[in-house]
Design a protein that fits this description.
The chain is α/β, with parallel strands linked by helices and 147 residues long. The protein has four helices and five strands. The strands form two sheets. The protein has a three-stranded parallel sheet, sandwiched between helices. Strands 4-5 form a two-stranded antiparallel ribbon. The protein is globular.
């Protein structure tokens, strides 16, 4: 709970604000033209249609992969968590690799799968970042800041 999901959602919102000509919370920013913002954040089942949480996630990911372009912006949060660990890692790896190699789309991908850090060594353009928590105690209050 270091703020990964909040950071990637905020990034998509800033892009949307910038494209509508609105104020963005920055001293300055350089944002290129984006033809669409695609997200896969959280999900649940749709029992009325007989869809499990995992199936809903896979349908959302398939929609993203079928519609993004080089000009799109993609936010993926914990892809592959709706199944076993090894299957989840495989799905997350394949999605990351496909987006980077085939689609060349700007993407922020939050994950707990540390195995995916190896992608940075294998695929040009992939860069790993991590969140670090700084806890500061003052009197009886605790301030937590993510980096």
């Amino acid at each position: 709970m270091a703020g990964k999901s909040t950071f990637i959602r905020q990034s998509a919102l800033i892009i949307l604000l910038a494209h509508t000509g609105s104020f963005i919370p920055a001293k300055k920013g350089k944002i290129g033209i984006i033809d669409g913002i695609y997200t896969r954040i959280g999900s649940g089942d749709v029992l009325s249609k007989g869809l499990s949480t995992f199936m809903v996630e896979m349908l959302e990911v398939a929609n993203i992969l079928n519609n993004i372009t080089e000009r799109s912006f993609v936010v993926l949060d914990e892809v592959g968590r709706g199944t076993s660990t090894y299957d989840g890692i495989s799905i997350a790896w394949a999605v990351s690799e496909y987006i980077s190699k085939e689609k060349k789309t700007k993407t922020l991908f939050a994950t707990h799968y540390h195995e995916l850090t190896k992608l940075e060594e294998e695929i040009p353009g992939i860069k790993n970042f991590h969140m670090h928590i700084k806890e500061e105690r003052r009197r009886d209050k605790i301030f937590i800041q993510g980096f």
